[in-house]
Design a protein that fits this description.
The active site is at 269, 326. By secondary structure, this protein is mainly α. It has a domain at 231-336: Cytochrome p450-Terp, domain 2, CATH 1.10.230. It contains 17 helices and three strands. The chain has helices at 37-43, 46-55, 61-72, 79-86, 94-104, 118-144, 157-166, 177-189, 197-206, 212-223, 231-242, 248-256, 277-293, 298-311, 314-318, 326-336, 343-363, and strands at 21-24, 29-32, 35-36. The chain has a three-stranded antiparallel sheet with strand order 1-2-3. A hairpin with a 4-residue loop joins strand 1 (21-24) and strand 2. Helix 6 runs antiparallel to helix 17, helix 8 (177-189) runs antiparallel to helix 16 (326-336) and helix 10 packs across helix 17 (343-363). The chain is globular and about 75 Å long. Bound molecules: carboxymethyl coenzyme *A (CMC). Carboxymethyl coenzyme *A binds next to loops. The site of carboxymethyl coenzyme *A has 21 residues, from loops.
Length: 391
């Protein structure tokens, strides 16, 4: 009827129907296909969560075995992908490389880019889930100037990622089971989160019929920003900047000052007006990992104190600003030995399954091209003025 609503930032607009993930932001609940994030993080593993997000049910033992072995069949990247890296500066941000290389995967799979063919969509999902850790680790190795490590299919998903990150061809990789478990849990906690900015970007790009690799590259770009996936990197940079417990009050005051652009990174969420349940699991995991590794990290102490002071401050209480998933993830990633610049890459790697599950859900059902409207606030119609008559 020509009437449309104005909703900048989509704070109250549902853009689609979905059966994948449920969030109740008021109580701080997150379910994937009906299973709570706490149970999935405590009892499942990342590839099982991937299967569940993609297919809607937990796999049987046989289905799980088949899924894991199929994903493992796709872990290598085409040898020519290696050449891409040489075009980048060694100090390129790894997210810049990810945007380019993942988008370029579409140039390698012309045979399976028919989005209306369910088998093509399925093999694309396998390829993306399998190759993201390989490409992510290649970004790190390239920055270091070390040789790329081929994936090892005898290892678990997280173990293999750590092998490609930290192994070298001169000796057998030694991967700590504690670190591999912590890494796997981080992957689970980031696997999906319904219609966030990057997932909505993937859906919007996909709604034009664009190929899935290009859509995921669009998702990676949207994730990069500090208000979204880039927050985990920003949290550690912020903790570095705060420096010591004595400076916390100054930074809390800055965060409350509307004339200061500073925000407490890792705090606040569009949907959660209570504790982000992922942050609760991440916080516990953080303590476990540091205790098991015997690491005494002053940044964790600083983070806990910052959390305590912020949560007791009326500003944060009134605005219902709680720590989100990114508040503690950086500290665990740092303990694992992951450099700060790789944090958002790890988010992208983990979220790939969510992106592809949403893309597939959209393409498998009737959908329309996404085409938001706008509220025009520019000039009314006016006559064109020839250049020699303009003032
Ligand atoms: N520090 C200080 N004030 C804040 C913060 C913060 N971290 N977050 C929100 N506020 C204030 C904001 O200034 C606003 O105040 P007012 O009502 O006076 O204008 C009010 O709280 C509501 O915030 P908003 O920015 O309108 O809320 P939003 O839903 O548009 O933004 C957010 C949500 C996550 C982008 C924002 O809270 C933020 O920038 N947080 C820091 C970045 C961060 O941690 N992002 C990771 C999100 S979780 C991981 C993911 O899903 O990507």
């Amino acid at each position: 009827n020509g009437v449309f609503t104005f909703d900048p930032g989509f704070t109250s607009t549902a853009s689609c129907e979905s059966k994948i993930t449920f969030i109740d932001g008021e109580v701080g609940k997150l379910l994937h296909r009906g299973y709570s994030i706490e149970e999935l993080a405590g009892k499942s593993d990342y590839l099982e969560v991937c299967y569940t997000l993609l297919y809607g049910e937990l796999p049987s033992a046989e289905q799980k075995e088949e899924f894991v072995s199929t994903v493992k069949n796709h872990t290598m990247v085409h040898e020519q992908i290696r050449n891409f890296f040489n075009g980048f500066r060694r100090d390129a941000h790894p997210m810049a490389i990810m945007c380019g290389v993942v988008g370029a995967l579409s140039a390698f799979y012309h045979d399976s880019l028919d989005i209306n063919n369910p088998q093509h969509r399925e093999i694309t999902a396998y390829r993306l889930i399998a190759k993201m850790p390989t490409i992510a680790a290649m970004c790190y190795k390239y920055a270091l100037g070390q040789p790329f490590m081929y994936p090892r299919n005898d290892l678990g998903y997280a173990e293999n990622f750590l092998h490609m990150m930290f192994g070298n061809p001169c000796e057998e990789s030694k991967i700590s089971p504690t670190l591999a478990k912590a890494m796997d849990r981080i992957f689970i906690l980031h696997a999906d989160h319904e219609q966030n900015a990057s997932t909505s970007t993937v859906r919007l790009a996909g709604s034009s019929g664009a190929n899935p690799f290009a859509c995921i590259a669009a998702g990676i770009s949207a994730l990069w920003g500090p208000a979204h996936g880039g927050a985990n990197e920003a949290v550690l940079n912020m903790l570095d900047e705060i420096g010591s417990i004595d400076n916390i009050e100054t930074y809390i005051a800055k965060a409350k000052d509307k004339s200061d652009p500073f925000k407490l990174m890792g705090f606040g969420h569009r949907v959660y007006k209570n504790y982000d349940p992922r942050a609760t699991v991440m916080r516990e995991s953080c303590h476990e990992v540091l205790a098991e590794l015997g690491v005494n990290d002053p940044q964790l102490e600083l983070a806990m104190k910052l959390e305590e002071i912020a949560l007791s401050d009326p500003y944060f209480k009134e605005k219902k600003l709680f720590p989100n998933v990114d508040f503690y993830s950086g500290i665990i990633l740092k303990a694992i030995g992951i450099p700060t610049s790789m944090f958002t890459v790890i988010f992208a790697l983990s979220r790939t399954v969510g992106w592809i599950a949403h893309w597939n859900e959209m393409i498998s059902n009737p959908y329309k091209i996404g085409r938001p409207r706008q509220l025009y606030t520019g000039e009314a119609e006016r006559p064109f003025v020839p250049v020699n008559e303009r003032k």
